[in-house]
Amino acid sequence: MANVYHGLGNKSKGFTLIELVMVMVLIGILAVAIIPRFANRNSFDARGYFDQSISLLRYAQKLAVAQRRDVFVNIHAPSATICLSYVADTSCSDLTNAAINPADQTKIYKPAPAGVVSFANSLSFSFSALGKPSLANTTLINMTGDGILQTITVERDTGYVH
């Protein structure tokens, strides 16, 4: 009868000690590099609020064009809050004239995560029905989040937000 070859033969199945040690070392390196990033969420929260602020400003411009009326962007620096309304209100306290979010029918009022973001100053400006801001010059909106200064720019002539 002929010998039948069964694949691995006498070789054992499994991992070598070197492979196991290398995997454990790699897991340790990744744990040291990645876990501290998830322990402190302030930088993630600050960047998220910065991106949401840009989106709110762009939405205000589009809302003004769609509804053919002025839409005000109100930034209240002490509470780090942005709200959209149909009247100028830098304190964001008059929610009776606030713009409505069509997705969930709530007022567009966005406070920053507590203690994470701060604005340099309060500001109120509007976008006209043509999408043009009421600003005399290109405006820089400075916000500080997790120790990093980030700037939102609203262009004077076009209303472009970046």
TrEMBL record:
Pfam family, one: N_methyl
GO BP annotations listed: protein secretion by the type II secretion system
Xref: InterPro entries: N_methyl_site (IPR012902), Pilin-like (IPR045584), T2SS_protein-GspH (IPR002416)
GO cellular component: membrane; type II protein secretion system complex
Protein name per the record: Type II secretion system protein
Upper lineage: Bacteria, Pseudomonadati, Pseudomonadota, Betaproteobacteria, Burkholderiales
Keyword list, A-Z: Membrane, Methylation, Transmembrane, Transmembrane helix
Compartments reported by the entry: Membrane
Membrane topology type: Single-pass membrane protein
Transmembrane regions: 20-39
